[in-house]
Design goal:
- This protein is of the alpha+beta class and about 325 residues long.
- Helix content is about 30%, strand content about 30%.
- Helix 2 crosses helix 3 and helix 2 runs parallel beside helix 4.
- The model has no long low-confidence stretch (mean pLDDT about 95).
Length: about 325
């Protein structure tokens, strides 16, 4: 049986359906992300798991135990939020130790566990510091340590990195993933950031208006979107109508889909025996760090191409290029 199991979870607020029959399984030691736009219901799922919100109907099981009528404080679930909620009058060490002391863990064990978790989150040298002397990233690591030190069965993370700047955020994503693997902790993250979900997850559940639109590994979700919503939300996919694509490549497509998704980086400039060939004009070409983005046009149809910057600069506007796409990179949408 799955370590975390949600069966047909529904939630209705004042006649508004927030969750519609959510079925979800998470294995022990797995890092799972609920990804979706604001208001799709992903944070409500976390609150139902934690026991902070009651589902209208459906069942929740954690480690094989039915959570019906189980109070939040005895579910053995940790939560980390966007706001750090640290005690400003306590040192880092005391903030992390707080939950253990509330559980009346012996002092010798408290010190041992706090020292270990501070080492895991790389904050040993800050144990005597107060929160107002820490950076945002350090405060978030203290909040994470405080949740981890009590050894919850499941750790829930509700957009914990969204308030941080991009560089610190990327570093903490790596730290979070490393900590999860080292501790073999079951973690469920909520985020609207596609790159963050791809960077840390074993499996992703993409949500749309209270439902799971697609589930799978990061590679599955990114390379094989099942719908136009997933393709547009997960990346800069080119969405092209069947008749437009057949006109571009000069071939009939066997797939009966009405629309197709093509990743910008799947468009290349070297031909293989199976390639679809498009002669197109470069309309605009700009550099975005290590990526060059070029808008092409052919038959009055525009599409985006992205390629790594190798020091050769942008493509020449107004020039005609031979573009190629492999058939397996043309994904039919429902």
């Amino acid at each position: 049986m799955s370590y975390v199991l949600l069966q047909d979870i529904k939630k209705i607020y004042h006649e508004t359906t927030v969750l519609s029959g959510i079925d979800m399984e998470v294995n022990k030691g797995e890092f799972v992300t609920l990804l979706g736009p604001s208001g799709c219901g992903k944070s409500t799922i976390l609150r139902i798991l934690a026991g902070l919100t009651e589902a209208t109907s459906g069942s929740v099981y954690i480690d094989g135990k039915d959570m019906r009528n189980v109070a939040p404080m005895i579910r053995e679930i940790g939560m980390v939020f966007q706001s750090y909620a640290l005690f400003p009058n306590m040192t880092v060490e005391d903030n992390v130790a707080f939950g253990l002391k509330m559980k009346k863990v012996p002092q010798s064990e408290v010190k041992e566990r706090v020292d270990h978790i501070l080492d895991v989150v790389h904050l040993t040298e800050k144990k005597a510091a107060y929160p107002n002397h820490l950076s945002g990233g350090q405060q978030q690591r203290v909040a994470l340590a405080r949740s981890l030190v009590v050894r919850p069965k499941v750790l829930l993370l509700d957009e914990p990195l969204s308030a941080l700047d991009a560089q610190i955020r990327k570093r903490l994503q790596t730290d979070l993933r490393n900590i999860q693997r080292e501790m073999e902790m079951t973690m469920i993250l909520v985020t609207h950031d596609q790159e963050e979900a791809m960077a840390v997850s074993d499996h992703i559940f993409v949500m749309k208006t209270g439902e799971i639109a697609q589930r799978g590994t990061p590679i599955d979700i990114y390379t094989r979107p099942k719908s136009e919503f997933i393709a547009r939300f997960i990346g800069n996919y080119n969405i092209i109508l069947r008749e437009q694509l057949e006109k571009l490549i000069g071939r009939h497509l066997g797939d009966d889909s009405g629309k197709f998704a093509i990743r910008p980086e799947a468009i290349h400039f070297s031909q293989t025996p199976s390639s679809y060939h498009i002669r197109a004009e470069a309309i605009d070409s700009t550099m975005h760090g290590n990526v060059i983005r070029t808008i092409f046009e052919a038959e009055r149809i525009r599409f985006l191409c992205e390629r790594l910057h190798h020091g050769t600069g942008t493509l020449q506007k107004g020039k005609i290029y031979d573009c190629f796409i492999e058939p397996e990179d043309v994904v039919g949408l429902k």
